[in-house]
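Thread: "does anyone have the structure for this chain?"

Original post by V.I.:
We have the sequence but no experimental structure in hand. Need at least a predicted one for the grant figures.
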Amino acid sequence: QVQLVESGGGSVQAGASLRLSCAASGQNRYAMAWFRQAPGKERDFVAHISSGGRSTYYADSVKGRFTISRDNAKNTVYLQMNSLKPEDTAVYYCKAFIAAAYYWGQGTQVTVSS
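Reply from O.Q.:
Generated one for you, tokens below.
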């Protein structure tokens, strides 16, 4: 069983930055991803990072603004979010991929006002 705890969300103005963190229990050698879910909408993919951190990819809507990274020594994955827009408002979740299974965190709210 893997436990994921997200933090770093908050309420900011458009154009601001936030950095989300996702701390994983145990030894973090999993591929990880961030997803987000806005009110009344489905949960959407945001960014993915390989277990070693060398490979990343992003949703088109966040390319050039968001950066996913990881520190395996701290068992933590980050999402640096710059130039935030109101449409980035959502609950952000991290996800761990372990063999055929996956685990979700509880989410952290990000609210961007215009």
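V.I.: this helps a lot. The CA atoms of residues 89 and 111 lie 5 Å apart.
O.Q.: and The chain is about 0% helix and 55% strand.
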